[in-house]
Amino acid sequence: MTTTTAPKKARPTAQAGGATDLSELVHYTPEQIENAGWLPFSARTLRDRASARVFPHSKASGRITFLPRHIREIAAMYEVRPVSEHKRSAA
């Protein structure tokens, strides 16, 4: 009696199907963000507002760090849209 095995399926990889870019997983310290000038806040302000849960952040290894998406979210929090883009409320 002989047995046959099912064909092996390819394992999905990080590159297949436009999966996560590894650069999006890099954690930046508040000091790195301040030195790079990516946000108009000091390292102390970034740390304080993250601790107060005002700013999105990560607590990897118990330290406050920021992913690139957190930096983009913080920048978007202070965006001001023109009045012409605001929807009129129905009266």
- What gyration radius follows from the Cα positions, in whole Å? 22 Å
H/E element order: HHH
Which geometry do the CA atoms define?
flat
Quaternary structure classification:
single chain
Indicate the low-confidence ranges by residue numbers: none
SS element count, helices = 3
Termini separation (Å)?
A: 80 Å
The fraction of residues in strands falls at: under 5%
> What can be said about the biggest beta sheet?
none
**Helix/strand-derived class?**
mainly alpha
Number of strands: 0
Estimated helix fraction:
25-40%
Rounded mean pLDDT is 85
Quick overview:
The protein is 29% helix and 0% strand. The protein is mostly helical and 91 residues long.
Question: Would you write up a description of this structure?
Answer:
The protein is mostly helical and 91 residues long. It has a domain at 29-78. 29% of the residues lie in helices and 0% in strands. It is built from 3 helices and no strands. Helix 1 crosses helix 2 (43-51). The protein is flat. The termini are far apart.
